[in-house]
Every structure is written in C-alpha cells, then in structure tokens.
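Appendix B. Chain record.
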Amino acid sequence: MRLLLTRPSKKTLLLIAAVSGALSVALFLQLAAIDRELKPYTIIGYEFAWSAERASQMYSAWGETGRNAARSSLRYDLPFLLAYPFVFSALTLLAARAAPGKYARLGAWLGVAPFVAAILDALENAALWRALDAFQQPPEHLLQFAAIAAGVKFLLLGLSGLYALAVWFFRVLE
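Structure tokens predicted for this chain:
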C-alpha cells in the first residue's frame, strides 16, 4: 500500500480525478433524471428495501413504466460504478500524500476502498435486477443482500470521502 503514496504521480491522479469526476457527474445527472420516474420512491430506497413486502409496494406504485425505469437506472449504474471509484480513490490518495505518517498509510488503504465499494455496487445491482425480474414474488434474500451491500458500499465511500475532506480541512487550518 505504501506504493500508492508515491505512484501514480500527482499529475496522473489529478488527471484521473478530473476525467472520472466529469464522467461521474454526467452519469449521475442521467441517473437523477431516471430517478424522477420512480416517484414516490427512489432507486436508493429500492437499494434499501430489505423486505419483499416493501419491494412489492414499490413495484406496485411504479407499475410497468416504473419497473422499466428502475431497470434503466440499474443499467446506467454500470458505467457510473466504473467511473466513481477512480475519482474517490484519486482524491483520497492525493489527500494521503498530504497527511503525516500513519494518517498517510490510512489514506493509502482508504484509496482502495472505492474499488471495493464498486464491486459491492455491482453485486447489489445484480441482486436488485434479479428481484425486479421476479417482481410478483421478489426473493427477500436478494433484497437483504442488496441492502447490506449498499450499506457497506456507502460506508466505504463515506469513509474515503470524509478522510479526504478531513485532511484538506486540517491542512487549511495549519
């Protein structure tokens, strides 16, 4: 992990952050537009549905149009989950290089966390897609797996992002 504190170069990390950040924002905007079709629910609400009863309420409210919108959201999430880990990781590694000692090493580890989150996101999407395909009797174990995967995904991304913000904040105060 110490290698991540020196490689790739700062210039490369900045380029990765800029390109993946722009791509992530564009994809996020598309996902947000699709999400409006899922009212009164959201795709994040679906990620945390947990129970077959709750998912069935969503499917019923959505109807066929909403279920198709949910499928579109899961489809657009694939390129998004290929982009966002790079921006989170690059920013976390840039912060790690500005942090002292053990905090730098912590940042190197947290620089990998977004990629673990993306793997969890892909597994979560697969479970949600399978549950959506069985919308008349959604398998509860898939919904529970998706909720756990989503929770861990958001935790990892949150830790990575908070680390980068904390390092920046404390560097500004110096």
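Further analysis of this model is presented in Appendix C.
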